Amino acid sequence: MIGSLQGRITGKSPPQLLIEVNGVGYELEVPMSTFFHLPALGADVRLLTHLVVREDAHVLYGFATEPERRLFRNLLRVSGVGPKIALALLSGISVEAFARCVENEDIAALTHVPGIGRKTAERLIIEMRDRLKLMEKLPGAATPVAANAARTPEMEAFDALVGLGCRPAEATRLLQAVGPGTHSTEELIRRALQAAARD
Q: How far apart are CA 173 and CA 128, in angstroms?
Protein backbone atom coordinates (compact mmCIF):
# COMPACT_ATOMS: atom_id res chain seq x y z
CA MET A 1 0.00 0.00 0.00
CA ILE A 2 1.26 3.49 -0.87
CA GLY A 3 0.67 5.63 2.24
CA SER A 4 2.18 8.95 1.13
CA LEU A 5 4.15 10.61 -1.64
CA GLN A 6 6.69 13.40 -1.50
CA GLY A 7 7.97 14.89 -4.72
CA ARG A 8 7.74 17.62 -7.35
CA ILE A 9 4.46 18.71 -8.94
CA THR A 10 4.83 18.30 -12.69
CA GLY A 11 1.18 18.43 -13.75
CA LYS A 12 -2.08 19.94 -12.49
CA SER A 13 -5.46 19.37 -14.15
CA PRO A 14 -8.26 19.31 -11.56
CA PRO A 15 -8.90 16.87 -10.03
CA GLN A 16 -5.81 15.13 -11.40
CA LEU A 17 -2.28 15.72 -10.25
CA LEU A 18 1.10 14.41 -11.39
CA ILE A 19 3.90 14.13 -8.83
CA GLU A 20 7.39 13.06 -9.79
CA VAL A 21 9.17 11.03 -7.12
CA ASN A 22 12.76 10.03 -7.87
CA GLY A 23 12.11 9.97 -11.61
CA VAL A 24 8.76 8.18 -11.40
CA GLY A 25 5.56 10.12 -12.15
CA TYR A 26 2.55 9.24 -9.99
CA GLU A 27 -0.93 10.21 -11.17
CA LEU A 28 -3.31 11.09 -8.34
CA GLU A 29 -6.84 12.34 -7.99
CA VAL A 30 -7.31 14.87 -5.21
CA PRO A 31 -10.34 16.69 -3.77
CA MET A 32 -10.65 20.41 -4.38
CA SER A 33 -10.06 21.00 -0.66
CA THR A 34 -6.52 19.73 -1.28
CA PHE A 35 -6.10 21.08 -4.81
CA PHE A 36 -6.73 24.71 -3.85
CA HIS A 37 -3.88 24.63 -1.32
CA LEU A 38 -1.25 23.08 -3.58
CA PRO A 39 1.91 25.04 -4.39
CA ALA A 40 2.78 26.01 -7.97
CA LEU A 41 4.06 23.67 -10.67
CA GLY A 42 7.65 22.64 -10.01
CA ALA A 43 7.30 22.95 -6.23
CA ASP A 44 7.71 20.07 -3.80
CA VAL A 45 4.71 18.67 -2.00
CA ARG A 46 3.89 15.83 0.37
CA LEU A 47 0.47 14.17 0.23
CA LEU A 48 -1.15 11.32 2.14
CA THR A 49 -2.57 8.73 -0.23
CA HIS A 50 -5.13 5.96 -0.55
CA LEU A 51 -4.99 3.33 -3.30
CA VAL A 52 -8.25 2.00 -4.74
CA VAL A 53 -7.87 -1.25 -6.69
CA ARG A 54 -10.50 -1.96 -9.34
CA GLU A 55 -10.75 -4.68 -11.95
CA ASP A 56 -9.81 -2.24 -14.70
CA ALA A 57 -7.48 0.17 -12.88
CA HIS A 58 -5.49 1.10 -9.80
CA VAL A 59 -6.37 4.67 -8.78
CA LEU A 60 -4.30 6.67 -6.28
CA TYR A 61 -6.03 9.42 -4.29
CA GLY A 62 -4.14 12.21 -2.51
CA PHE A 63 -5.00 14.29 0.55
CA ALA A 64 -3.40 17.27 2.26
CA THR A 65 -4.48 16.22 5.76
CA GLU A 66 -5.14 13.05 7.73
CA PRO A 67 -8.76 14.06 8.58
CA GLU A 68 -9.51 14.31 4.84
CA ARG A 69 -8.06 10.87 4.14
CA ARG A 70 -9.79 9.35 7.17
CA LEU A 71 -13.16 10.73 6.09
CA PHE A 72 -12.58 9.49 2.52
CA ARG A 73 -11.86 5.99 3.81
CA ASN A 74 -14.92 5.99 6.04
CA LEU A 75 -17.12 7.23 3.20
CA LEU A 76 -16.04 4.30 1.03
CA ARG A 77 -17.60 1.98 3.62
CA VAL A 78 -21.02 3.56 3.22
CA SER A 79 -23.40 1.53 1.06
CA GLY A 80 -23.62 3.00 -2.43
CA VAL A 81 -20.72 5.44 -1.98
CA GLY A 82 -17.68 4.94 -4.19
CA PRO A 83 -14.48 6.95 -4.66
CA LYS A 84 -16.12 9.35 -7.12
CA ILE A 85 -18.86 10.38 -4.68
CA ALA A 86 -16.42 10.49 -1.75
CA LEU A 87 -14.13 12.79 -3.75
CA ALA A 88 -17.09 15.00 -4.70
CA LEU A 89 -18.08 15.29 -1.04
CA LEU A 90 -14.59 16.33 0.03
CA SER A 91 -14.50 18.79 -2.86
CA GLY A 92 -17.83 20.36 -1.96
CA ILE A 93 -17.73 20.44 1.82
CA SER A 94 -15.08 20.58 4.55
CA VAL A 95 -14.51 17.75 7.02
CA GLU A 96 -15.90 19.88 9.84
CA ALA A 97 -18.95 20.99 7.82
CA PHE A 98 -19.69 17.37 6.86
CA ALA A 99 -19.60 16.37 10.52
CA ARG A 100 -22.05 19.16 11.35
CA CYS A 101 -24.39 18.03 8.55
CA VAL A 102 -24.42 14.50 9.95
CA GLU A 103 -24.90 15.70 13.52
CA ASN A 104 -27.76 18.03 12.53
CA GLU A 105 -29.22 15.55 10.01
CA ASP A 106 -28.99 18.28 7.38
CA ILE A 107 -30.00 16.36 4.27
CA ALA A 108 -30.55 19.55 2.26
CA ALA A 109 -26.94 20.70 2.69
CA LEU A 110 -25.57 17.32 1.61
CA THR A 111 -27.76 17.21 -1.51
CA HIS A 112 -26.18 20.48 -2.66
CA VAL A 113 -23.00 18.48 -3.35
CA PRO A 114 -22.99 17.30 -7.00
CA GLY A 115 -23.80 13.59 -7.27
CA ILE A 116 -25.45 13.36 -3.83
CA GLY A 117 -29.18 12.64 -3.99
CA ARG A 118 -31.61 12.48 -1.10
CA LYS A 119 -31.31 8.70 -0.58
CA THR A 120 -27.50 8.86 -0.54
CA ALA A 121 -27.60 11.79 1.90
CA GLU A 122 -29.89 9.82 4.21
CA ARG A 123 -27.55 6.81 4.11
CA LEU A 124 -24.56 9.03 4.84
CA ILE A 125 -26.25 10.48 7.92
CA ILE A 126 -27.31 7.07 9.24
CA GLU A 127 -24.07 5.20 8.58
CA MET A 128 -21.60 7.99 9.45
CA ARG A 129 -23.29 9.13 12.67
CA ASP A 130 -21.71 6.48 14.87
CA ARG A 131 -18.25 6.87 13.37
CA LEU A 132 -18.29 10.61 14.01
CA LYS A 133 -19.69 10.14 17.52
CA LEU A 134 -16.83 7.79 18.33
CA MET A 135 -14.30 10.36 17.12
CA GLU A 136 -16.08 13.05 19.14
CA LYS A 137 -15.31 11.14 22.34
CA LEU A 138 -11.58 11.11 21.76
CA PRO A 139 -9.60 13.10 24.36
CA GLY A 140 -8.87 16.63 23.18
CA ALA A 141 -11.06 16.41 20.08
CA ALA A 142 -12.22 19.92 19.29
CA THR A 143 -14.49 18.80 16.42
CA PRO A 144 -16.17 15.50 15.52
CA VAL A 145 -13.20 14.76 13.27
CA ALA A 146 -10.22 16.32 15.00
CA ALA A 147 -7.55 17.81 12.79
CA ASN A 148 -4.39 15.70 12.77
CA ALA A 149 -5.77 13.47 15.53
CA ALA A 150 -3.63 10.41 16.15
CA ARG A 151 -5.33 7.09 15.65
CA THR A 152 -6.28 5.58 18.99
CA PRO A 153 -6.89 1.93 19.91
CA GLU A 154 -10.63 2.71 20.00
CA MET A 155 -10.60 4.03 16.42
CA GLU A 156 -8.53 1.11 15.16
CA ALA A 157 -10.78 -1.38 16.94
CA PHE A 158 -13.87 0.30 15.48
CA ASP A 159 -12.47 0.06 11.94
CA ALA A 160 -11.50 -3.58 12.53
CA LEU A 161 -14.98 -4.51 13.78
CA VAL A 162 -16.62 -2.83 10.79
CA GLY A 163 -14.15 -4.63 8.54
CA LEU A 164 -15.28 -7.91 10.15
CA GLY A 165 -18.86 -7.17 9.16
CA CYS A 166 -20.30 -5.25 12.13
CA ARG A 167 -22.55 -2.33 11.33
CA PRO A 168 -21.13 0.99 12.63
CA ALA A 169 -23.84 1.29 15.31
CA GLU A 170 -23.17 -2.26 16.50
CA ALA A 171 -19.40 -1.68 16.59
CA THR A 172 -19.92 1.43 18.71
CA ARG A 173 -22.22 -0.45 21.10
CA LEU A 174 -19.76 -3.33 21.50
CA LEU A 175 -16.85 -0.99 22.21
CA GLN A 176 -18.91 0.94 24.75
CA ALA A 177 -19.75 -2.38 26.43
CA VAL A 178 -16.03 -3.01 26.99
CA GLY A 179 -16.10 -0.23 29.55
CA PRO A 180 -13.46 2.25 30.72
CA GLY A 181 -9.79 1.44 31.01
CA THR A 182 -6.62 1.48 28.98
CA HIS A 183 -6.79 -1.33 26.45
CA SER A 184 -4.75 -2.16 23.38
CA THR A 185 -6.45 -2.42 20.00
CA GLU A 186 -6.22 -6.22 20.15
CA GLU A 187 -7.75 -6.34 23.64
CA LEU A 188 -10.61 -4.05 22.62
CA ILE A 189 -11.41 -6.23 19.61
CA ARG A 190 -11.21 -9.44 21.66
CA ARG A 191 -13.52 -8.11 24.40
CA ALA A 192 -15.96 -6.65 21.85
CA LEU A 193 -16.20 -9.98 20.01
CA GLN A 194 -16.71 -11.79 23.32
CA ALA A 195 -19.57 -9.39 24.09
CA ALA A 196 -21.05 -10.04 20.66
CA ALA A 197 -20.88 -13.80 21.22
CA ARG A 198 -22.78 -13.43 24.51
CA ASP A 199 -25.60 -11.44 22.87
A: 14
**Between residues 177 and 121, which one has the greater pLDDT?**
121
**Cα separation of 76 and 73, whole Å?**
5
Confidence label for 151 from pLDDT (cuts 50, 70 and 90): low
CA–CA separation, 122 and 118 (whole Å) = 6
CB 91 within 8 A of CB 71: no
Fold of 151-199: Helicase, Ruva Protein; domain 3 (1.10.8)
Segments of 54-188 assigned E as strands: 58-63
Which among 43, 3, 75, 40 has a CA at the least distance from the CA of 28?
3
pLDDT of residue 187: 84
Q: Which CATH number fits domain 65-148: 1.20.1250.20, 1.10.287.110, 1.10.150.20, 3.30.70.1400?
A: 1.10.150.20
- Alpha carbons 178 and 183: distance in angstroms, whole number: 9
